[in-house]
Amino acid sequence: MAEYHCPGCGYTYDESTGDDHEGYPPGMLFNDLPDDFVCPACSVRYKEDFVSGKLDESGSSDEITS
Ligand SMILES: [Zn+2]
User: Fold this and answer.
1) Distance 11 CA to ligand 1 centre (A)
2) Which of 13, 32, 39, 55 is close enough to 6 for a disulfide, judged by CB 3.0 to 4.6 Å?
3) What is the Å distance from ligand 1's center to 43 Cα?
4) What band does 28 get if pLDDT is binned at 50, 70 and 90?
5) How many angstroms is it from 45 CA to the middle of ligand 1?
6) Are strands 3-5 and 51-52 parallel, antiparallel or unpaired?
7) pLDDT tens for residues 44-63?
């Protein structure tokens, strides 16, 4: 299971937990989300804007730049 992060607001979609509030059950893969998925938190970032990977505690990641 992977995590995907919104580059705009920091929202995290975790495939292992899904997002029940948005109607995505635990285990639902990010790739299986609807193509018109937008970030539930900021509503301005689309699926293709999300970046994959876990954030480490130092906050640094090659895939996350701010
Ligand atoms: Zn967002």
Assistant:
1) 5
2) 39
3) 6
4) very high
5) 6
6) antiparallel
7) 999 999 999 865 555 555 55
